[in-house]
Amino acid sequence: MTWEKAASPSMTERGMRIALIFALAAERLTAFYEYGQWLTEAQGASLAADWLSRSKNKMPLAERRQLSALSDQLARQIETSLSREAGMYTAHEMMESLDPNHHSEIAESLMVECERLLDDNLAG
């Protein structure tokens, strides 16, 4: 699994949070389609901590859990709105898009959704 896109040195705090939601949603969908189980909020927060430590960043547990919950919300929205095949394709595209050299219109539109989720959560 690659997280370089989210770990670029010029990334803002906000951008890092959006990228975390996206990457965690990709992981959640992949786990769901491969194993038939959803990651827990704690598992998502743990994945976020691992990624953050690799990029030499830190975030309080409460915030990691909040982003984990937002990624869960997005992943479940995707899963319920798409057929199994389309969901599997979307999960694959999201995982591929974690590589900074991969361009995907699907991933770009989902990043916009991650941004909206973050903004809505901060406003509420």
Task: Give me a quick take on this structure.
This protein has 124 residues and is mostly helical.
Strand percentage: under 5%
How helical, in percent, are the residues? over 70%
* Bulk shape: globular
End-to-end Cα distance: 33 Å
Structure description:
The chain is mostly helical and 124 residues long. The chain contains 5 helices and no strands.
Topology diagram in text:
Blueprint: H1 13-35, H2 41-54, H3 61-81, H4 84-96, H5 105-123
Helix pairs in contact: 1-3, 1-4, 1-5, 2-3, 3-5
Tags for this entry?
73% helix, 5 helices, mainly alpha
